[in-house]
Specification:
alpha+beta; 6-stranded mixed sheet; 2 domains; binds zinc ion
């Protein structure tokens, strides 16, 4: 074991500074401050640590900031990925930008999701630099924008950066997340025929026809999707999120639009979802000759699952055993994360980060000891994964 000291006061101060910088995602909230201010703050901090820094501009309010700690060569490259944006703070019952530290907890919007994880990533890098150890492989610290909305930050990142593995420090309560669900958004347009409300022979009611489709969607969820089971993620699901149709009370509606969300398991994809919707349209149409509909699966994000045999999983697992002195728990997450974008770019990715409560909620905090534990596990993981070239330094 190497003797690497973590300056916890500095890590706490950095975390508090990051919380006090408003970085509400402007795609979620029009007046949101964006990620440019926090990106510059982190960039300056990394430069002071002696790390080369690059920015990827996304638009006038938003940027990724990337620091690369160059290795001496011959080792594997690891990416530490964390998002700098937060969701809105309007519903908070505490001051979102006042990073109060009380009873071991740091409060504020983004404390848990995920400035605590970012602080751990930066502190891990800082501690390695201060120790004088030289790594063989590179460490890429990627602080990205827009995770909470459309992942434009990580999508921009992977155009110019790659790695042999990545760790995202979203809050997992010090458990190792190796799977999460994906999702697809689809729109279905049911076509009727407009007519005066008194002319039942002429009109075709698109809303009534849409109801037949919706009953089959419910059956799909109940009878088929609920029977599928993933050991970490449970069952996939489908629900109707939006419906729109009709003109006025005295007219047969010629159009009804339904928008659906389908949450997917690893192994299901855009084609799976398209096939299910197509089957239902055909089934309803075979019973009701007046039923006409078209569909489009207009947005899709894949699920994530990484094998436990992957070197990054093994390395981080071993680091947890040694640092936390217990068997780490492998878990799945129901929500979607940037990790799937990294995995699609062929970067094996896992999620591991601190404990706390209130992500997106009215009172958000991160447990600071767990930020320090995350830092320790990251240090050990980085040293083992990238390799150390002057082990006796
Ligand atoms: Zn997050």
């Amino acid at each position: 074991m190497y003797d690497i000291r973590i300056d916890t006061d500095k890590a706490l101060k950095l975390l508090q500074e990051m919380i006090s910088i408003d970085s509400v995602n402007p795609s979620l909230v029009k007046t949101g401050n964006g990620e440019l201010g926090i990106a510059h703050h982190i960039g300056q901090y990394l430069e002071k640590m002696g790390i080369g820094v690059k920015y990827q501009e996304i638009d006038s309010k938003r940027a990724n900031v990337i620091g690369v700690l160059q290795g001496t060569g011959g080792g594997r490259t690891i990416m530490l990925n964390g998002h700098t944006d937060t969701v809105s703070s309007e519903t908070m019952s505490i001051d979102p930008l006042d990073p109060r530290f009380e009873n071991g907890k740091v409060y504020g919007r983004g404390a848990l999701d995920m400035k605590g994880g970012l602080a751990a990533q930066i502190a891990a890098l800082h501690s390695i630099i201060e120790s004088g150890l030289r790594l063989k492989g590179d460490v890429i610290l990627a602080c990205v924008a827009d995770e909470e909305y459309a992942s434009r930050g990580t999508e921009t990142l992977v155009k110019n950066y790659s790695a042999d593995a990545a760790v995202i420090c979203e809050p997992t309560g010090l458990k190792i997340t190796i799977a999460h669900k994906g999702f697809a958004w689809a729109k279905v347009e049911v076509i009727g025929k407009a007519a005066h409300g008194s002319l039942s022979d002429e009109g075709i009611d698109a809303i009534i026809k849409a109801a037949k489709f919706l009953v089959e969607i419910e059956n799909l969820g109940k009878d088929i999707l609920s029977q599928r089971d993933h050991p970490l993620l449970g069952s996939p699901s489908i629900h109707a999120s939006l419906i729109n149709g009709g003109i006025e009370l005295s007219t047969y509606p010629d159009y009804c639009k339904i928008e659906l969300e389908r949450r997917t398991l690893p192994g299901e994809n855009r084609e799976t979802v398209a096939g299910e919707i197509e089957n239902i349209i055909e089934k309803v149409g075979s019973v009701d000759r007046q039923f006409r509909a078209n569909y489009d699966v207009f947005f899709y994000r894949p699920a994530l699952e990484i094998s436990r045999e992957q070197p990054i999983v093994q390395t981080l697992k071993k680091a947890c055993q040694i640092i936390l002195r217990k068997e780490p728990e492998f878990v799945g997450m129901s929500g979607w994360l940037d990790s799937a974008v990294l995995a699609e770019a062929d970067i094996p990715t896992i999620i591991f980060g601190p404990k706390g409560e209130g992500a997106h909620g009215s009172v958000e905090y991160v447990d600071f000891d767990s930020v320090v534990d995350t830092t320790k596990v990251l240090i050990k993981t980085i040293l083992d994964f990238c390799g150390v070239c002057n082990p006796r330094a």
